[in-house]
Design goal:
Order of helices and strands: EHEHEHEHHHEHEHHHEEE
Strand content: 15-25%
Distance between the termini: 54 Å
Bound molecules: adenosine monophosphate
Oligomer: single chain
Number of helices: 10
Largest sheet: 6 strands, parallel
Length: 290
């Protein structure tokens, strides 16, 4: 069966109401397009457990800051359609800006703010970003209706924000997190990797090497967050292609609070600039039981 493409909210709703009525489960994979194998893995996870799999492609202006890359963000719907279909999607929903925000993004008067988990890291470096994410995901959940939605651990803080929003607002959506898909050299796949030259792409693997260094320390029993962060920063500093570091962090994976000392499960996160791209990545780590 060929993938079906919709650009209107009403058409997608009618289709999903009908398939749910006939007993099919709906899987939802929200994306901003420029699809790669990381997105593909979410679509595959969704299609393993749902008869209907909707991939959404919408570059959401609300989640970009004024000096960020909304205009430059890569777009290519034909390639997206092919990748989504090959991974098992049955529907591609690609609404225009007017369909999602009638009157334009500046006319939006209702937004969703998740407190707490949005404060540090990405939230601190990208003011308003998570309100934009929470608002568009709330809209996509309202449009899709009861479903299971798949999000990548690549955007670990975003996953926490979406889980929290769905729970706090009693949305009829089960949120599932999926592991990060990486290039052979360890670099996390990202649409923004398209901003990198081949040389930068090779060297950007230093971000994953820094995370692995941190994970090895935690798993070896290092309990000082500062010691772990310093070691990760040293690895980053060894590669001149990293032009600036937004943060290197060790946090509690549920609250995003910074632990005084590491005991149990933590998340290690990095945001850094390489060439024209701002890259983020993270890994989990667990200290050895005493
Ligand atoms: P984006 O199109 O970048 O907004 O991402 C759409 C979804 O794909 C989000 O849930 C991301 O976390 C997820 N995603 C992006 N890159 C990867 C990756 N390398 N591995 C797994 N999931 C990813």
């Amino acid at each position: 069966v060929a993938i079906v493409r919709f650009s209107r909210v009403a058409d997608l709703r009618a289709r999903l109401d009908r398939v749910r009525g006939s007993g099919a489960g709906v899987g939802l994979v929200p994306t901003m397009g420029a699809l790669h194998d990381g997105h593909g893995s979410l679509i595959e996870a969704a299609s393993a457990r749902n008869q209907e799999v909707v991939t959404t492609v919408f570059v959401n202006p609300l989640q970009f800051g004024p000096n960020e890359d909304f205009t430059a963000y890569p777009r290519g719907l034909d390639a997206d359609l092919a990748l989504a279909e090959a991974a098992g999607a049955t529907v591609l929903f690609a609404p225009g800006l007017d369909e999602m925000y009638p009157g334009g993004p500046a006319a939006v008067r209702t937004t969703v703010h998740v407190a707490g988990v949005t404060a540090p890291l990405e939230g601190a470096h990208r003011p308003g970003h998570f309100d934009g994410v929470a608002t568009v995901v709330a809209k996509l959940f309202a449009i899709a209706g009861p479903c299971t939605a798949y999000f990548g651990e690549k955007d670990f803080q975003q996953l926490a924000v979406v889980r929290r929003m769905a729970a706090d607002l009693s949305l009829p959506v089960q949120v599932v997190g999926c592991p990060t898909v990486r290039e052979a050299n360890g670099l996390a796949m990202s649409s923004r990797n398209r901003y990198l030259t081949d040389d930068e792409r090779n060297r950007a693997a230093v971000i994953f090497r820094a995370l692995v260094t941190g994970r090895d320390l935690v798993e070896g029993g290092e309990s000082s967050p500062d010691a772990v962060s310093s070691a990760m920063r040293s690895v980053l500093a060894s590669e001149a292609v990293v032009s600036s570091i937004d943060y290197v962090a060790v946090v509690d994976p549920a609250t995003f609070d910074a632990p005084v000392s590491i005991a149990g499960e933590v998340r290690l996160l990095i945001a850094a600039r390489v060439g024209r791209a701002r890259l983020i990545d993270n890994v989990g780590a667990r200290s050895p039981s005493p």
